[in-house]
Amino acid sequence: MRVAPTILIALYLCLSIAPTQASECFSPSPLKKKSGQTFEEIKPVKLTNTQASSIRNMFKNLRGNWRGTATGFFCLGTEKNPRQKADNFTIKAEIDVFSQQDIVITADMDAIEQRKQRTEIFRLFSSNGFLRLNKNRTAGDVKVKTISQNEISFVQYSQIKINSKGPSTTTDVKGTVNKSGGIARREIITTIKRSYKALRIEYKVYSNGVLSSTSTWSLKKR
User: Fold this and answer.
1) CB 5 within 8 A of CB 134
2) Contact 38/137 with Cβ under 8 angstroms?
3) Residue 162, φ and ψ in degrees, nearest 5
4) pTM score, whole prediction
5) CB 218 within 8 A of CB 10
6) pLDDT band at 163 (very low <50, low <70, confident <90, very high)
7) What's the CA gap between 62 and 222, in Å, rounded?
8) Residue 80's Cα: distance from chain center in Å?
9) How does pLDDT run across 110-157, given as a tens digit for each residue?
């Protein structure tokens, strides 16, 4: 969900950014709070039969057209003086569900406050026995937090190599600083919630151990 990622929306739910979320900017990531680290290698664990069944049930009847909004923000400023830049869109999405319960969400997004558009594609795989985001191979491996019939939550770790020409994403660089720049580590937590004809996808992105952006997609089936 590159990552992911939105990855990660107005169903008849209308979401807004609560004032308390301003203080969330640059807050420590779960990994940093737990271990003091900002990156860890994924050790993928094969889905159990119960988890695979839950995924099949959750994705049942998702195929079709969906509408909603994406509500979120980017963190700017400093840890002592954090600021938010809104990142809000209306969404027209099409969801495809394949025979092995892999899903693809193609979302056409129109900015609410600015004249800009973009298309995001969210791919979630389980057909090879592992939960994977965007790529159905080891590069898409995630760390599963929760799988039930109405909620899936997982973490994906990535590293971005920073150089004089700007950042470029990579997953196999070493955590060392060189003359051309350094390494930015990302921890992306994605939570998918399903209810009757409604789908909610929440993203929290942590960069180098602190919160850098969030987005919540709230979709309702047409």
Assistant:
1) yes
2) no
3) -100, 125
4) 0.79
5) yes
6) low
7) 11
8) 26
9) 997 777 899 999 999 999 999 999 999 999 999 999 999 899 999 999
